[in-house]
Amino acid sequence: MKICMIGAGYVGLVTGACFAEMGNDVICIEENKDKVKMLEKGNVPIYEPGLKEIIERNVKEGRLSFSYDISTGIQNSLICFITVGTPLGDDGSADLKYVLRVAGQIGDSMNDYKIIVDKSTVPVGTGEMVRETILKRLEERGLSHIEFDVVSNPEFLKEGNAVQDFMRPERVIIGTDNIRTAEIMKALYEPFVRTSNNPVLIMDIRSAELAKYASNAFLATKITFMNELSILCDKVGADIFQIREGMGTDSRIGPRFLLAGVGYGGSCFPKDIQALVKTSKNKGHTLEICEATLRANQRQKEYFAGKIVSFFKEEGLDPKEINIAIWGLTFKPKTDDVRDAPAIDIIRALLERGFNISAYDPQGMDNAKAILGNSIAYAKDHYDMLDGADALAIVTEWNMFKSPDMKRVKELMRRPVIFDGRNIYSPDEIRAMGFTYFGVGRG
Ligand SMILES: NC(=O)c1ccc[n+]([C@@H]2O[C@H](COP(=O)([O-])OP(=O)(O)OC[C@H]3O[C@@H](n4cnc5c(N)ncnc54)[C@H](O)[C@@H]3O)[C@@H](O)[C@H]2O)c1
Fold first, then answer.
1. Domain 2-203 shares a fold with domain 243-438
2. What is the pLDDT of residue 432?
3. Of 136, 181, 261, 378, which residue has the fewest beta carbons closer than 10 angstroms?
4. What is the mean pLDDT of each run of 10 residues along the chain (443 residues)?
5. Class for the domain spanning 2-203
6. How far apart are CA 202 and CA 315, in angstroms?
7. CA-CA distances (angstroms) from residue 370 to 6, 129, 363, 367, 398?
8. CB neighbours of 86 closer than 8 A, spacing ≥ 6?
């Protein structure tokens, strides 16, 4: 099938490359000319394991290309995917300006039947707004007889595992009111579910739009529940790890998303839950659990920063004399994405108190620099930065941080104090090595 992806970011690039991998002809349209130039030179503007190889192969075999010429991309494709950002607007709802601009561009360019697929995460009712925007532009061009269908196809890939997730989805959701379009979309996704037999779920557009928000809100709440409990564990001397085992072995609960830490972050959960809360508020309904999740997640980040602040306060030390080394800036491992990463809020809270911060992340340094500027020092290596450090805080659980040379870590540090925001170390083992250790909810 001939496909165009409009917006070559985390979702558009992965999705486009994976559709091409299955034999489709894909053109990724991107308005940022620097990104297009990078992609044309064989460079991938984001870090996502396995993506570069798939892009290289499909470009070489002629199934994948990049362009900023949106008209040609739309005119040469049967299916046009909208994969642009839907950031949080000033009023807490999803900002649809990018999505609706693309809808306008589609209406300005299309010359025959198209299937317009909204893959961006959008609030209920956006499908209708996209349809109206396209129709209005077609009318202005005197082409209102041209038919088109609007489909909602929310994306569930996870950064860091995006290629795998897209190639073997647990489910695909297609929101459409047209049986013929549903069949075309099913055929497009069939190779991705052939071996797994996982479902392609056909539903109405509004339910598809809401299913995405519901999933993200539920997952964020699951994490947040454990985070809340971890604070209680610290207060009563219980271990959140053991509680996780006790809960997660119940098949109704399951073990996943039960790891306590520094709070969720990233480009999706924070903005999506806020947008869902706002959608509901606009309809006069309060989503009590989601609102509590938002508050508790904010508190979790403050709680972790507060542990560091309290420790040095109790020691009677001036933050201005204290050097904190941070391992991990991205919101999770295996991505370079720092959007709404807990590390950013935690660092800002420590800076406000006067601490000196240096940070290291294997992939997220450039993106973090764009946000934090020169307010912190950026280390070239995760050991050198420990020279003279008074505490090490682990904020992202990259594999390279899981089994470091602890002897070397201890020798380099001025004070051997570890704040393990992801519970990646065994408290007993670390303490036996002579460190002062603080986990999250480890009793
Ligand atoms: N990142 C994720 O893990 C993830 C997962 C599932 C769903 N989503 C959703 O998918 C959507 C896209 O997210 P993302 O992380 O890929 O965003 P992103 O910011 O990485 O990418 C969006 C891209 O679209 C481009 N763009 C914007 N307007 C354009 C236009 N008119 N023409 C051409 N290009 C244009 C931007 O320059 C940018 O490169 C969002 O709604 C997000 O919530 C994201």
1. yes
2. 98
3. 136
4. 98 98 98 97 96 98 98 98 97 97 98 98 98 98 98 97 98 97 98 97 98 98 98 97 96 96 97 98 98 98 98 97 98 97 98 98 98 98 96 98 98 98 97 98 92
5. alpha beta
6. 60
7. 25, 34, 13, 5, 21
8. 94, 95, 96, 98, 99, 120, 121, 122, 271, 275
How crowded is residue 202: how many other Cβ atoms within 10 Å of its Cβ?
17
- Enumerate the domain spans of the chain: 2-203, 243-438
Calculate how far, in angstroms, residue 121's C-alpha sits from the geometric centre of ligand 1. 9
Q: How far from 51 is each of 21, 55, 163, 167, 185, CA to CA, in Å?
A: 11, 6, 7, 11, 23
What SS3 class is residue 26? strand
Task: Tell how far CA 300 is from the center of its chain.
Answer: 18
Cα–Cα distances in angstroms (integers) from residue 356 to residues 103, 226, 351, 438, in the given order: 47, 30, 7, 20
| Residue with CA nearest ligand 1 atom 36 | 7
For the Cβ of 6 lying below 6 angstroms from any atom of ligand 1, the answer is: yes
Could you identify the residue written with the tokens 């870590």? 409
Residue with tokens 């946000």: 371
Note if the pTM is more than 0.90: yes
Query: Has 233 been annotated as catalytic?
Result: no
**For atom 11 of ligand 1, which residue has the closest CA?**
120
In DSSP terms, which residues pair with 173 in a beta bridge?
201
Residue 371 burial (CB count, 10 A): 16
Q: What is the pLDDT of residue 241?
A: 95
Query: 153: Cβ below 6 Å to ligand 1?
Result: no
Ligand 1 midpoint to CA 131 (Å): 20
Select from 160, 165, 272, 171 the least CA-distant residue to 221: 272
Q: How far is the CA of 308 from the centre of ligand 1 (A)?
A: 35
Which of 10, 137, 153, 269 for a ligand 1 pocket mutation test, highest count of atoms within 8 Å of Cβ? 10
Query: Among 4, 80, 268, 290, which one carries the catalytic annotation?
Result: 268
